[in-house]
Hints:
about 35% helix
Amino acid sequence: MLLAVKGLQTSVGLSPRAPALPRIATMQSFDVEVRGAGIVGKSLALSLAALGLDVALRGAPASGDDVRAYALSPSSIELLRRLRVWDALAADARTAVHDIVVHGDEAGAVLEFSAWQQCVAELAVITDAGALERALGAAIGGATRVVRVDVDVDAALVAHCEGRAAATLRSLGAATTFERSDTGQRAIAARLVASLPHRHVARQWFRSPDVLALLPFDRPQRERSYALVWSLPRERAEALLALDAGAFERELAAVAGSDAGALSLASERAAWPLVVGGAAAWSGPGWVLVGDAAHVVHPLAGQGLNLGLADVAALTAVVAGREPWRAVGDERLLRRYERQRAAPTWAMRQMTDGLLRLFAASSAPIRELRNNGMGLVNRVPPLKRWLTARALDS
Ligand SMILES: Cc1cc2nc3c(=O)[nH]c(=O)nc-3n(C[C@H](O)[C@H](O)[C@H](O)COP(=O)(O)OP(=O)(O)OC[C@H]3O[C@@H](n4cnc5c(N)ncnc54)[C@H](O)[C@@H]3O)c2cc1C
């Protein structure tokens, strides 16, 4: 028999010879079980606990040595601030982006976005993935209504936050179908140090079929670091991963040129297979999908986690606003959440899939069209403002 014991944060297997436990006092049922303790799962657990719900969080704590850095939108930051996590991050774990420069695959095909033009303080904040995981973990440790468990518990609602692994869960197999397609690409992530200061400029190169992003960062060196995300076909990614540091840096320089200065590796390189897709249904009686469990987008727009945190905010608002008689696992309630999130998620998927297809095509007319298109958008400030507002809004 398994008991979730609040405070002990464990599961207890009782053998016939085990001393009798005060069962009524220790056995606990929860309002919500959050399955998956990634950034989305931990944020959801904190957010629902702040409504006064008792939450069980199932999943091992992250190792915290992720080389990625996430470009977080103002809405994501607002949520993390409400959860008292954002201000707990060290200053060098979050670096503001004031400008974004996007290069096409021909000289002169450039798109520039600026916070100043958009009348906002910053376009995004690049945030250390490991530091964010640790700050959320510490907040969970101090949240009296969240209990870490390692078995399933009795709960009115199960929120699936297992990331892309949710697609393989047998318990969900009958409830929803997952459409997933392998892009045939991998993303290489690493930390870099540059010979020139980053000046808070994020840089991106769309060089068919590669997409290379340098996100300004302050770790390991203040003002001179970048987080690298380089998406490219699997074979080329594997070849690049096999190179020694010097040869890898030369390949990097061949794409990035000298705009950011000379770039040197400052961490191990890690790689992720890139799949995209989503679940046919995000909710049902007593269950709901949140974050990458519901949708996986290509990282070229840096929006996957932002979508997941927007899911957390939407689900929390729907649960907070429920009628007094409605249970937290009520299917009709959960459908409200699903309806709210369907359109923005669909739009973001179309945008990232469309960009991926557009920049993967190597035929001359399409290359010309996309490079001219970038120049055109760059010369039309209202269109640029509209595009930036959509990205800031996710
Ligand atoms: C290279 C790269 C760069 C990216 N950059 C950005 C960016 O700049 N901005 C942005 O917004 N997004 C970015 N993303 C996307 C972002 O990483 C994901 O959208 C985000 O991590 C999803 O968070 P999640 O908590 O939903 O899922 P995950 O991070 O996958 O967490 C799921 C958790 O569930 C656990 N789990 C799995 N199965 C089970 C189970 N059966 N039981 C219990 N626990 C389980 C896992 O161990 C994990 O801890 C990037 C992605 C990649 C690959």
